[in-house]
Design goal:
With 606 residues, this protein is mainly beta. It contains six helices and 34 strands.
């Protein structure tokens, strides 16, 4: 298997090895162990400060999540410039998110573990954000640009890392919530610690009733019901952390007036050992999905397990992180034809950082090997080169260029026997991303501004009968965030993106991709003792979302909370002025932008 995958790649392997040797230069051959903080940050396997990562970076902490009043992960992520949410643009009300105009080519990590299923199709999100409850999130780290040199496949437009809560001290909390469209949610969590041992457990249940979903050639379809049960457990003992999450949810909706149902069950387990410079992560994911419609029943199951080991060391004045990753996917689905496939991924990697005069040079190298049953095998050499310069004022300039790639899903390779024919020769999507910018922190908040350009070859699209590499894609633009104090209790935060995204069939003229040209989020933040609130104005300009879809849309969200002792009461309103608009259009189907929704929540901490 290795011989087949590595055949003809001797030159690339030599580049991989020689790059590390050349970077070391005349440094001492004596190796010493680094004394670093145990947690590295997203976008680097060396640094412990997100501001040191040579890329556009953003972090959303627990306070910001609560203050926003958001009810799901997509609402929180939409606050980041360049992340565009097409709300409820799916039959089961799932949200799609676009990063730099791309949907499928975004990597989601949960506590550093890659989270995506192998049965998605091109242009459809590869993970379900609803299965990650907001109440269990400690913070969110987002790194824009090519991340494949660190994380492998999918990390083309960026990486989103969800860091969940860990046990600290002891306590018990309950959360109750109600709102329009028969929205109900309850959550209970408990945690305790003793010495270096800690445990946290949680359970949540959510329900939502009928709401308009889409209009297809004049037929109004609705989401009829959504019901979710999920829970989780975290155990910590010294350098070990064990996380488990499981759940199930049921969705009912109509399509051309006919009732449809989708049942999902998932489980996610991971074990992390992190001691000094060494880190080992082992995980297992299982997702089962049953779809029932008037034409039959369809079953999908994806199992993935993997491991990731890395070590950080110092060679003279050079910092080094090296390691290897492994992933195995077992996929089976039955849409009239039973399909069972397995594929494996092996990936050695190294990241190096050393001073070069007044600059800091970073080099990431990863060699991806994919062995696929009954489909073409692929191996990719993935580099990323970055430079950093820190000014005397503490601001950090960065310049980077990196390669990315995204493997086709098993569904795209083998079809389903009904809607899609197989294409086992489907190639990965490949391209490069370039970033130039500056970021820093003043006494109020971190800020950044930067420009980017990315291009992609062999973009996968569905031509009506088969998935094929027929498109090219490119995007460029500018992104910025900044926070200012307005008055004693008020702050103003602005995140803005201007982006031009284009795609074309190979050889054809370029045309606009369906992504907003302007994405501006303006938030007024209020904090006065026990009262905190936020008013956010969202503007999407020149959306190019499809024929008949409004080009410019402005919505307003608001939230106000009152905290007294260990009790918090919060009122939140989504789309305050009930702006009516089509969220998106595809193949004659127009998706409704969600109407005004009002939520009241109460949380008590024992």
């Amino acid at each position: 298997m290795f011989g087949k995958a590595l055949k003809g790649k001797t030159a690339e392997l030599l580049v991989f090895v020689l790059s590390a040797i050349l970077l070391s230069g005349a440094v001492s051959a004596a190796e010493e162990t680094l004394v670093l903080e145990p947690e590295v940050v997203t976008g680097s396997r060396i640094y412990t400060n997100l501001e040191e990562v040579p890329a556009p970076t953003y972090v959303i902490d627990r306070e910001e999540i609560e203050r926003s009043g958001g009810k799901n992960l997509s609402e929180i992520l939409s606050q980041i410039p360049g992340i565009y949410v097409t709300p409820r643009n799916g039959r089961t009300q799932e949200d799609n998110i676009k990063v730099r105009g791309l949907v499928t080519q975004v990597l989601l990590l949960v506590d550093g573990v890659p989270y995506y299923n192998a049965t998605h199709g091109a242009g459809a999100i590869a993970f379900d954000l609803r299965s990650i409850p907001l109440a269990g999130i400690e913070r969110i780290e987002i790194v824009k640009g090519a991340g494949s040199a660190l994380y492998g496949s999918m990390a083309a437009a960026g990486v989103i890392n969800i860091i969940t809560k860990k046990p600290e001290g002891e306590g018990f909390s309950i959360l109750g919530e109600g709102g329009t469209n028969d929205w109900r949610r309850g959550m209970a969590s408990a945690w305790t610690t003793s010495g270096d041992f800690g445990v946290r457990a949680w359970y949540t249940k959510s329900e939502e009733g009928e709401s308009p979903l889409s209009s297809t050639y004049g037929t109004i379809d609705k989401s009829l019901d959504y019901d979710e049960d999920s829970g989780g457990l975290t155990l910590t003992k010294g350098p070990f952390t064990f996380n488990a999450a499981w759940g199930e949810y049921e969705s009912l909706w109509t399509y051309f007036g006919s009732r449809n149902r989708q049942d999902d069950e998932y489980s996610r387990l991971n074990l992390k050992w992190e001691e000094g410079p060494n880190r080992l992560l082992i995980y297992h994911h299982d997702l089962e999905r049953n779809i029932f419609d008037p034409w039959g029943e369809y079953f999908y199951e994806t199992k993935a397990w993997g491991a990731d080991f890395s070590q950080r060391t110092a060679l003279g004045n050079m910092l080094v992180s090296w390691g290897t990753a492994f992933r195995k996917e077992d996929i089976s689905y039955d849409s009239g034809v039973l399909i069972e496939q397995t594929r494996e991924n092996y990936a050695p990697f190294v990241e190096l950082s050393r001073p070069v005069g007044d600059l800091i040079l970073n080099l990431g190298l990863r060699y991806e090997i994919w062995d696929q049953d009954e489909a073409d095998d692929y191996d990719e050499f993935v580099p990323k080169l970055s430079f950093l310069y820190q000014t005397p004022m503490g601001n950090t300039w960065y310049l980077s260029a990196g390669k990315f790639f995204a493997m086709p899903s098993v569904y795209e390779l083998f079809g389903d026997g009904i809607w899609t024919d197989p294409n086992p020769h489907l190639k990965p999507e490949k391209g490069y991303s370039y970033e130039l910018g500056v970021k820093g922190a003043d006494i109020y908040a971190p800020w950044n501004i930067g420009v980017f350009y990315m291009n992609m070859d062999d973009k996968i699209v569905w031509d009506g009968s088969i998935y094929d590499n027929v498109d090219e894609y490119r995007a460029w633009g500018i992104e910025a965030t900044k926070t200012w104090p307005l008055a004693r209790f008020w702050d103003l935060s602005i995140g803005a993106t201007w982006m031009r995204a284009e795609e074309r069939d190979k050889g054809a003229p370029w045309s606009r991709s369906r992504a907003p040209e302007w994405d501006i989020d303006t938030s007024f933040i209020y904090q006065n003792g026990p009262v905190q609130g936020q008013l956010t104005v969202n503007y999407f300009g020149n959306r190019e979302a499809g024929e008949g879809v409004e080009s410019n849309v402005t919505t307003v969200d608001a939230s106000i909370g009152y905290k007294r002792g260990t009790s918090t009461l919060r009122l939140s309103v989504y789309n305050l002025f009930d702006e009516e608009y089509w969220g998106d259009e595809f193949d004659g189907t127009y998706y409704y932008g969600p109407e005004r929704r009002i939520y009241l929540s109460w949380e008590y901490l024992f």
